[in-house]
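Hey all, sorry for the wall of text incoming. These are the six entities for the joint prediction.
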Amino acid sequence: MPYVNIRITKEKNVTPEKKRQLIEGATNLLHDVLGKHPKSVHVTIDEVETDNWGVGGVSVTELLERQQSK
Amino acid sequence: MPYVNIRITKEKNVTPEKKRQLIEGATNLLHDVLGKHPKSVHVTIDEVETDNWGVGGVSVTELLERQQSK
Amino acid sequence: MPYVNIRITKEKNVTPEKKRQLIEGATNLLHDVLGKHPKSVHVTIDEVETDNWGVGGVSVTELLERQQSK
Amino acid sequence: MPYVNIRITKEKNVTPEKKRQLIEGATNLLHDVLGKHPKSVHVTIDEVETDNWGVGGVSVTELLERQQSK
Amino acid sequence: MPYVNIRITKEKNVTPEKKRQLIEGATNLLHDVLGKHPKSVHVTIDEVETDNWGVGGVSVTELLERQQSK
Amino acid sequence: MPYVNIRITKEKNVTPEKKRQLIEGATNLLHDVLGKHPKSVHVTIDEVETDNWGVGGVSVTELLERQQSK
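and here's what came out:
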């Protein structure tokens, strides 16, 4: 029954294996903390383009460029 | 005013015609059950990659592979 | 696997029976259009206070007051 | 802490510059109205295909075609 | 057509007037940046209990307590 | 930057301590799997009334009643 939505920026290092670990980890978390049956846990991962995510009024694209130019 | 979000896995059989039927059906549902004016109903469909959806701690990609190998 | 989220304004006429009909109708829709197994369909209903929903820059609370004063 | 999700249809005119303005504007709004620190505001923009968004029981794809044929 | 969801923590200072300003401001933003017709813009505000929002692994309830004890 | 939304049914056993564990666990998960800085991880928990959540076309309220009557 639980539904977990994980939103992250779309980046190269988010491989299918990493996604597998996020799904497994979130499922275990709901089981361990609330006793939810693993079969009932749904997890979705939304990968958001860095142009489409902003923190502090600035897009993540721009934040990453600033970091690299340091 | 109602807003319906339908999240499904991204699969080939979800054609524009199928999406049209989901939009029409969800709109009719809100009209029939709650008397909402169809013009006020918004529906969005999110198609999620099978790598990005997990049930029971396993990705849908893996679940589909298991089914096919049976 | 499908996950349907229905957002409506919180109003007195949304009884448990109406919610039951929304859940059943949305589940049938996913089954009829995409062949999804009913047991796999999850539906959640979010009831949003009329102060917390705006259309056209105006809260639904205010829109309802305008209608009544006509 | 605030989290703002903006869902729009995917259209050519939504350039990175427009997205930048949406992020900045939403961040300023939360600061101006509720005094939230800009650094704490997160904004995500979801661009939804016009086939996947319906209003009044009809997809936006179809609504746009009707407008053009007028 | 645009749909804006604003998630904030539930706090006393979020009055109906403040909500009105958030709705108006978000609607104007979509109009000013993307030329969306105000009547087509929907805004919902989700007020989340401070126990139910975490940043940096800690609930906002706890973060506020730490601030006050300083 | 990551944003995790956990939706569960509203039940008595979901104490503030359990919520604290969900927040901490989800934050650690994003750190361990993707190397995200804990301070950047936001977690929200939505507690949904059992009347407002359906699985297999039936509300959770009804599913729980069936279990108890067995």
